[in-house]
């Protein structure tokens, strides 16, 4: 059940929203979709779901196109949240669940267990408009997963939630993955992606600038970070060969180096200068990678 | 197909369960029961007292015949010969001893003339009755003076024998025409009201789903075309429920008052002689008309992104219905005019105008068939267009709703 996006391009008139995108999302994986605002993430999701037609290329899931014949196996949490404000949580989920091919009694049982899981069992007969925004979002999430989809698409699932709720939803996503659901999700929050995804793709102006497994991406990025806490002035490290970026911090500095071997040169340079309290060589964060790859669009 | 039924029953049930639907129906039913019993209700308020009219008859020979004829036409009015002066009589009226005071005298040429005094002359019913009856007495006296006797008078007033006969055998007879006119009236009003009410409901429903943004989930689960038609039919069923309820209650109420009516309920509406084919045409054109306008409404509803814009966008559609309605009103008297003939082929006018022509004229079957084909084709066209606008429109959120949006919606849903 692989989702295969091959050479997909989407144009609105003269504007190219997605340009020659090719991705493969294996079954049972969480795939992170990153990109600045307007990079084409939502457009890609809509094309995967068949809501928008593809200008060029093709999208296959399990060798077939996604349309209304297999839409029961797909769950979707749109970026623009939307539920019927006047309906109760129960009526709402029953309607949306039936539209995904479920029976009423199954839906109610499943809904109750989800509400239990999200610690809001009292909301069953409440109207949506009576709930807080964060709680509405939980209901929205339930509506996307109630029918145990094989492929789940989450557009910014954690935006607007407090940290406790984010953890709750993250746990739910991980549980779904362990049950074999393939999950595609987009986010601006790098730490969420880093925590959840093994595979990811960074989009910029409709084109993928980076894509692959998290480990490979970090390795291929090459650059590493060195964190130093020391009692003396460290600004001389700026001029060292191999140091790409120097950032002073309150307790010392943060260096970006273009190869891990450079870290040893830094260490040698620090020798005999004074008291060093911390010296650490770390992998680049996804944040660094994103800013370098996608940040180019802001310059 | 099953998703179609889920959307349909959802549309029907959520509307059905709302308080406003319940309240509207209760009010409408009360109005129906009230209208059926309108006579008893009016009597209830008016039956308090007999109305007494004081008459001061200076001539001496008009009071007796006037009293007889007035009391025969209006049973709750009694005339009383007043013994006293005119001033006293007016005083008595002011003190509400009498409803009114009538003073009769001879004027020029020895013919009766009268003055009517009452505290209020806003309600003209009593004075009209008195005037009419006095008029008859005056006519009798005047003709008598002229030397014309009763039989000659009757001869003068006898209506001329005039019969309109249609030469074509299949043409409608006078009675059939007036009955067809009755049915055309009913269908016109039904179509007008249901297109406006239920068309609005459809557009509102869709616009609601769009503004609450639930639409994106919906169209990822079920195809927009089946959703659109499920909504149209769901609302149609709701309308049928409502109209059916009114008809059943109305029928029961009228049945109970059967004793007061001669003949059955259909005769009451002047429909007993309407042919079955006219009836069937009525239903066919009603259904087609509803479908056409409902599809248009669904398409318009999917274009707006704010609920406030629905009314604005519905205006052109309501104008179309109104224009059709007014042409039909004009056409009721002149169904043969070429203006009506030509406009009856325009799909948005067909349900009203072609039905009017079918009901009132003898037109060849191919003309009806042609107009039905044109309508079916435009419904199909509108549905295809509507489905595309629906699909594109629901992903589109902008400020205004205009022709530009319409094009954009089409573009968004374009097959590449």
From TrEMBL, chain A:
InterPro entries: AAA+_ATPase, ABC_transporter-like_ATP-bd, ABC_transporter-like_CS, ABC_transporter_ATP-binding, DrrA1/2-like_C, P-loop_NTPase. SUPFAM superfamilies: P-loop containing nucleoside triphosphate hydrolases. Keywords: ATP-binding, Nucleotide-binding, Transport. Residues 3-230 form the ABC transporter domain. GO terms for molecular function: ATP binding; ATP hydrolysis activity. SMART domains: AAA. The keyword Hydrolase does not apply. The keyword Ligase does not apply. PROSITE patterns: ABC_TRANSPORTER_1, ABC_TRANSPORTER_2. Signal peptide: none annotated. Belongs to the ABC transporter superfamily. This is ABC-2 type transport system ATP-binding protein.
UniProtKB/TrEMBL annotation, chain B:
It is a multi-pass membrane protein. Pfam families: ABC2_membrane_3. It comes from the Bacteria. Keywords: Cell membrane, Membrane, Transmembrane, Transmembrane helix. InterPro entries: ABC-2_transporter_component, ABC2_TM. GO terms for cellular component: plasma membrane. It is found in: Cell membrane. The keyword Aminoacyl-tRNA synthetase does not apply. Residues 19-387 form the ABC-2 type transporter transmembrane domain. The chain crosses the membrane at residues 21-42, 183-207, 228-254, 274-301, 313-332, 338-356, 368-390. Its main location: membrane. One of its GO terms (molecular function) is ABC-type transporter activity. This is ABC-2 type transport system permease protein.
């Amino acid at each position: 059940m692989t989702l295969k996006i091959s050479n997909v391009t989407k144009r609105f008139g003269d504007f190219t929203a997605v340009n020659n995108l090719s991705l493969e999302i294996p079954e049972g994986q969480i795939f992170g979709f990153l990109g600045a605002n307007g990079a084409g993430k939502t457009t890609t999701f809509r094309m995967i779901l068949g809501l928008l037609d593809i200008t060029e290329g093709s999208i296959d899931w399990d060798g077939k196109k996604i349309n209304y014949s297999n839409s029961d196996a797909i769950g979707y949490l749109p970026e623009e949240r939307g539920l019927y404000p006047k309906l109760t949580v129960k009526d709402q989920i029953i309607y949306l669940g039936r539209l995904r091919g479920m029976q009423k009694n199954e839906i109610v049982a499943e809904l109750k267990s989800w509400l239990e899981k999200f610690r809001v069992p009292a909301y069953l007969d409440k109207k949506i408009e009576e709930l807080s925004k964060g709680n509405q979002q939980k209901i929205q999430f339930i509506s996307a997963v109630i029918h145990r989809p094989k492929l789940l698409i989450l557009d910014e699932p954690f935006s607007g939630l407090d940290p406790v709720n984010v953890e709750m939803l993250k746990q739910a996503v991980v549980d779904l993955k362990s049950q074999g659901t393939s999950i595609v999700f987009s986010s601006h929050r790098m730490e969420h992606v880093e925590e959840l995804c093994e595979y990811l793709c960074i989009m910029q102006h409709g084109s993928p600038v980076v894509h692959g497994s998290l480990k490979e991406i970090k390795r291929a990025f090459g650059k590493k970070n060195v964190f130093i806490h020391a009692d003396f002035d460290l600004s001389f490290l700026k001029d060292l060969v191999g140091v790409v970026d120097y950032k002073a911090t309150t307790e010392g500095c943060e260096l970006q180096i273009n190869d891990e071997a450079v870290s040893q040169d830094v260490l040698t340079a620090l020798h005999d200068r004074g008291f060093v309290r911390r010296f650490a060589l770390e992998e680049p964060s996804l944040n660094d990678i994103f800013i370098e790859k996608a940040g180019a669009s802001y310059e | 197909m099953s998703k179609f039924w889920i959307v349909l029953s959802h549309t029907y049930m959520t509307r059905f369960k709302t308080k406003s639907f319940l309240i509207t129906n209760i009010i409408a039913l009360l109005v129906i029961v009230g209208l059926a019993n309108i006579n008893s209700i009016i009597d209830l308020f008016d039956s308090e007292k007999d109305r007494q009219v004081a008459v001061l008859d200076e001539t001496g020979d008009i009071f007796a015949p006037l009293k007889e004829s007035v009391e025969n036409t209006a049973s709750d009015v009694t005339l009383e010969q007043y013994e006293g002066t005119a001033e006293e009589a007016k005083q008595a009226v002011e003190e509400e001893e009498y409803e009114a005071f009538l003073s009769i005298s001879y004027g020029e040429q020895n013919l009766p003339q009268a003055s009517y005094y009452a505290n209020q002359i806003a309600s003209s019913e009593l004075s009209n009755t008195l005037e009419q009856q006095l008029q008859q007495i005056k006519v009798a006296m005047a003709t008598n003076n002229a030397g014309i006797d009763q039989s000659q008078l009757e001869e003068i007033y006898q209506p001329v024998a005039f019969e309109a006969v249609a030469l074509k055998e299949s043409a409608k007879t006078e009675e059939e025409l007036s009955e067809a006119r009755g049915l055309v009236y009913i269908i016109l009003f039904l179509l007008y009201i249901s297109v406006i009410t239920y068309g609005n409901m459809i557009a509102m429903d869709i616009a609601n789903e769009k503004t609450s943004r639930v639409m994106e989930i919906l169209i990822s689960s079920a195809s927009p075309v089946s959703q659109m038609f499920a909504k149209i039919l769901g609302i149609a069923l709701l309308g049928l429920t409502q109209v059916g309820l009114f008809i059943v209650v109305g029928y029961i109420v009228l049945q109970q008052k059967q004793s007061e009516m001669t003949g059955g309920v259909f005769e009451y509406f002047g429909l007993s002689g309407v042919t079955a084919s006219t009836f069937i045409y009525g239903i066919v054109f009603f259904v087609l008309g509803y479908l056409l306008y409902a599809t248009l409404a669904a398409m318009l509803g999917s274009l707006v992104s704010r609920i406030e814009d629905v009314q604005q966008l519905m205006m052109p559609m309501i104008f179309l219905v109104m224009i059709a309605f007014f042409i039909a009103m004009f056409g009721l008297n002149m169904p043969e005019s070429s203006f009506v003939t030509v406009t009856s082929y325009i799909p948005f006018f067909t349900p009203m105008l072609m039905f009017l022509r079918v009901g009132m004229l003898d037109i060849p079957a191919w003309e009806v068939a042609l107009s039905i084909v044109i309508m079916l084709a435009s419904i199909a066209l509108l549905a295809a267009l509507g489905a595309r606008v629906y699909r594109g429109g629901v992903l589109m959120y902008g400020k205004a709703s205009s022709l530009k949006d319409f094009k954009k919606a089409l573009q968004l849903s374009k097959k590449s």
